[in-house]
Design goal:
Blueprint: H1 3-36, H2 39-46, H3 50-57, H4 60-67, H5 85-99, H6 101-110, H7 114-135, H8 142-162, H9 166-170, H10 173-189
Helix pairs in contact: 1-2, 1-4, 1-6, 2-3, 3-4, 5-10, 6-7, 7-8, 8-10
Length: 193
């Protein structure tokens, strides 16, 4: 076996180990939250020694940041009719929450831990603010309007996916969109009160 083959094999094993750690971490953070999830439990779930988790990610905060690297893939709203932006965003967010356990894990941690809250804030800053800038009538109001959008979307996610309030869980996706879209639309495009 030559060096390049041995190096490629090690790299494949390393990539597989990292992937196993991240999968286990996402599941553990989603199930237990940040505070209760432990490096030891995550390593056990991944079938590796805890020292490997530390080797690749340094500490629990580093692992958390890597495990919940969330790209919301928000739609470009500039091409939509102005009256459709609320519906487009609510539909998009709902689809993301329905199929993305990382968002659930991030929300759980964000409400109980400073590292999680900072991660949520960076997603807001880097991903939601630019989308809000596309449609808000007054550039000075973009942060406040985007913040109000976040209150609605995160409130829905908290009550539907974390706290699991029966009336909120019982709503069909179409009902959620019908109820929430006009509010998001108003926050983003209505004249200032």
């Amino acid at each position: 076996m030559n060096d390049s083959t041995g190096g490629e094999t090690r790299n494949r094993r390393s990539d597989a180990t990292r992937a196993a750690i991240l999968t286990a971490a996402r599941e553990r953070f989603a199930a237990d939250g940040y505070e209760r999830a432990t490096i030891r439990a995550i390593a056990k779930d991944a079938g590796i020694d805890p020292s490997m988790v530390m080797r690749y990610y340094g500490n629990k905060e580093g692992l958390f940041a890597a495990a919940v690297a969330v790209d919301l893939r928000l739609p470009d709203l500039r091409g939509l009719p102005r009256d459709d932006v609320g519906r487009a965003l609510v539909t998009h967010f709902l689809a993301m929450w329905e199929r993305n356990e990382e968002l659930t894990a991030l929300l759980r941690v964000g409400v109980t831990n400073e590292a999680g809250a900072q991660r949520m804030q960076s997603i807001f800053r880097e991903q939601l603010l630019p989308v809000a800038r596309q449609v808000c009538p007054d550039p000075q109001q973009v942060p406040a309007r985007a913040g109000l959008v976040a209150t609605q979307v995160l409130g829905l996610a908290l009550t539907r996916y974390i706290l699991r309030f029966p009336p909120t869980v019982a709503l069909t996706p179409e009902e959620v969109v019908a109820w929430l879209a006009p509010t998001i639309q108003r926050y983003l495009t209505a004249p200032s009160p």
